[in-house]
Structures are given as C-alpha cells and as structure tokens.
Amino acid sequence: MNRFNPDKLLLSKWTATRPQKKEKHFLVTELLRDEDDVLLQVELQAVLTRRSLWIDWHALHDDQQWLFGWR
Known about the structure:
Distance between the termini: 17 Å
Shape: globular
Strand order of the largest sheet: 4-3-2-1-5
Order of helices and strands: EEEEE
Largest sheet: 5 strands, antiparallel
Oligomer: single chain
Structural class: mainly beta
Number of domains: 1
Strand content: over 45%
Helix content: under 10%
C-alpha cells in the first residue's frame, strides 16, 4: 500500500504498473475537492502523450496499479 499525504499530491509523480499505450509515467496536475475541501479526485497526465485522466485519489494507494515516483 502506497503511503502519502493527500494534501501534497499536486505535481507528484506516479508510475503505472500496467502501462497502456506506452503511457507509464504520470504527473498529478489538478486536484478536485468538494465544497468542504475534501479531496475527491486527481487528474493524472501522461508524460509521454499529455493525455489526462481523472481517477479517485484512493486508487493511488493500490501498489498493484500505481507506484510512487517514476521507475
């Protein structure tokens, strides 16, 4: 299980354990919070293709899908 502070996710680097379309390295480019300032989702941008995707930030805890840092 990846351990991190959700308040420090912006601009953090992540590696997909199962890359698709040669997209392996990602950068957190935006955080989506509700009106109570609770983090809901993060936007990940692929470094290679600049494609963005929104995911639930809890998915980053799963080390079977995501590794912290670029590897």
